[in-house]
Design goal:
The protein is α+β, with helices and mostly antiparallel strands. The chain is built from 1 helix and 8 strands. The chain has one domain (31-108). The relative contact order is 0.23. The mean pLDDT is 87.
Length: 109
C-alpha cells in the first residue's frame, strides 16, 4: 500500500495514537489488592465462611451497583464458593462455601 502526502501523515498519526494506547494499557490495568485500589472496578473483601458448610453468609461490598460476579482469590482450605439463596444488592452479596470456617479473599466486581 502506498501513501501520498497527507495520507502518510494521517497514517503516522493513527499509528502514534495506537502506540500511546498500547503504552497506557500494557502493564497498567490492574485489580489492585486488599490494601490498595486498582483501576478495574471492583472491591476486595476478606471474609470467613460460617461454621456450617453450605449455609448463606453475607458479604458487604462497596460497589454501589449490582455485582457482575466475584472471584475467589485466596482461601485457606479446599472448598467451593457459590451464590447463596438471596439475590445480590448494590451493597451485599450472599454466598455459600462447602467448607466450615473457610477464610476467603474475594474480588467482587
Amino acid at each position: 500500500m502506498r501513501f501520498i502526502g497527507g495520507e502518510v501523515q494521517a497514517h503516522q498519526s493513527i499509528l502514534k495514537v495506537f502506540e500511546e494506547l498500547k503504552k497506557l494499557l500494557n502493564g497498567n490495568v490492574e485489580f489492585g489488592s486488599p490494601t490498595y485500589v486498582g483501576n478495574v472496578r471492583g472491591t476486595w473483601v476478606e471474609v470467613t465462611a460460617p461454621a456450617t458448610p453450605n449455609t448463606d453468609f453475607t458479604v458487604t461490598h462497596a460497589l454501589g451497583i449490582l455485582p457482575a460476579g466475584f472471584d475467589v482469590k485466596k482461601k485457606d482450605v479446599a472448598c467451593d464458593v457459590y451464590l447463596g439463596s438471596v439475590a445480590a444488592t448494590t451493597t451485599q452479596l450472599t454466598l455459600r462455601a462447602t467448607a466450615a470456617n473457610a477464610v476467603l479473599t474475594l474480588f467482587v466486581h
